[in-house]
Design the sequence.
């Protein structure tokens, strides 16, 4: 674990759901929720955890929790379509061999799942690991060609071949590879190990205002149920 840095990278300039990382969410914020889950981890040393942010509001949240801040550049926070080595500009500035990147947009992701992911990565021979959701469904490509073959004369999701969907919340890879434009490795070659997240609900990702509103309702209900 001494070779691994854990990073949450956030910004306020999201075009689809502006300010989502700092606006009120069930009496707290998405940033606060994510940070606290990492602080509750059983295996992540606090000194190995960085909040990579640019805006003062997010820096203040980090200081409230007493965690490390990587001062993200304005270019990284506001530019769209930047190369990996510019978006993840900490890759050659923090003295670690490996990185685990955790999305703060998944408020239902559990500390236990984060720890399980990191343990799997530490015990893996792969340079990269990516959180996914196991699916048993049918998919077509842009040419309307069926990608998941029929196993019977009709569609039957009980017997269909398994596929895996990106969960967009847990990532791991070598720091040095980011400089080569290969975060987690070559996704086309099959050399990135997939980590199946058991609960799809944990991977609920907030990209749009309607998702923010729905997640807030569920989060309030889960707090009230405790």
Sequence:
């Amino acid at each position: 674990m001494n070779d691994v840095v854990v990073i949450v990278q956030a910004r306020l300039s999201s075009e689809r759901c502006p300010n989502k990382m700092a606006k009120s969410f069930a009496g707290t914020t998405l940033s606060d929720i994510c940070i606290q889950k990492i602080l509750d981890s059983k295996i992540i040393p606090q000194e190995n955890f960085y909040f990579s942010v640019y805006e003062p509001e997010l820096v203040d949240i980090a200081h409230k929790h007493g965690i490390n801040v990587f001062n993200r550049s304005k270019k990284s926070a506001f530019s769209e379509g930047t190369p990996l080595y510019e978006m993840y500009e900490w890759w050659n500035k923090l003295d670690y061999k490996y990185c685990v990147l955790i999305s703060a947009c998944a408020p239902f992701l559990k500390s236990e799942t984060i720890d399980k992911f990191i343990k799997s990565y530490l015990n893996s021979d792969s340079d990269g690991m990516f959180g996914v959701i196991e699916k048993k469904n049918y998919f077509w490509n842009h040419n309307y060609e069926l990608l998941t073959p029929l196993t019977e004369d009709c569609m039957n999701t009980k017997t269909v071949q398994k596929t895996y969907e990106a969960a967009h919340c847990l990532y791991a890879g070598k720091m040095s590879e980011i400089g080569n434009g290969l975060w987690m490795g070559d996704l086309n070659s099959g050399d990135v190990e997939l980590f199946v997240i058991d609960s799809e609900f944990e991977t609920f990702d907030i990209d749009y205002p309607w998702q923010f509103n729905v997640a807030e309702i569920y989060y309030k209900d889960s707090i009230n149920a405790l």
